Input
Amino acid sequence: MTASPRPETLAMGASRMISLTLNGRPVTAAAEGRTNLADFVRDTLNLTGTHLGCEHGVCGACTILVDGEPARACLSFAGACQGADVVTIEGLDDDPVTAELRAAFNREHALQCGFCTPGMLVSARDLVLRLPEADETRIRLGLAGNLCRCTGYAGIVKAVASVISARRAQGIGPLTAERPLGPVGARAGGAVSAALPTTVATAAAPSATTTALAEDFTPAHSFEQSFEVPFPPAEVFAFFGRIEEVAACLPGAVIDAMPSPENVQGGMRVKLGPIATTFRGSARIGRDDATKSGTIHGAGADGRSRTEGLIRYRVTDGATPGTARVVLDVGYTLKGPLAQFGRPGLVREVAGRLIAEFAANLEARLGGTQPSPTQARGLDPLKLLISLVSDRIGRLWRRGGPTS
Output
């Protein structure tokens, strides 16, 4: 939703000619390097349907489509959109999805002053094209970046849900293909933004989400965690070979199919701050009986964000006889909108909770009792803050104390 200026963007104050496609027609106009896309379409091109609110990318009032992707026009430099396909609310006049949303907004009393409505419709249209069903939670999360000071959101959510339900009942499926992301103007979404009616027609034909495993995967982030259980290492390592039982102990995990003992298809529901999503994809499993070690290499996507990870584990003797210590080396890469919530500190906090619950469930299952129900766990903001501050203080003291 944010923009990154291209290397060729001119210095602040310098002017250049910018050529792009605006609502289906080519336009060329001059703009200074510091001009954002919202000011460019409003003041230079006289399309005032795009509203400016906070001008900090928070309120979502200025949301438009750039190469088929919703983008904050107040954060996007016009110069970064050279050659891009830009669609404002005026360009959606004849779009059937937007027409259905406008009617639903009127029917459900989903607007009052109307200031937020153009950006809200652009974001809502994106949800109609992407969500497989009218899930209120996902609709609310999807519209979390669009603020409304009038309606209380209930009518907006009902309007979007009604359009999704109606289209799915007509056999019009979601646009399930993963859309690569990049700076606005990079034509990352050009394949789905050429003509709006074509985009809607494409949505009726579902396609597989790309979750191929990279042969030479190099994670962007990594960390190590460990835990101990009061069972012999051989018994614990044997448990890791029973994938269905492992998934039953991991909060949020589900297995759809196992084409072979080394390949698994399924999903993982996670929560990062206010965002909850389900990544669905596949994993490849490796085991080494001689060293009591193994690997789990998986990749998944939720339609917009994509993650790939590699977990290396080894089972060793615990601190006392008859116990086992499991050491996990976790590497991962997270791409897409969810990456803004996936900072390493947050991911470690979530992973720590998942691993603690997994260890408790593993111990229960090996002990012959039923593990607790597995659900995706979120973040406790206060606990996270205390954890991060404590970690920071600990690092300072380990370095010899704070310095002035």
In short: Confidence is low (pLDDT under 50) at residues 1-12, 177-210, 373-384.
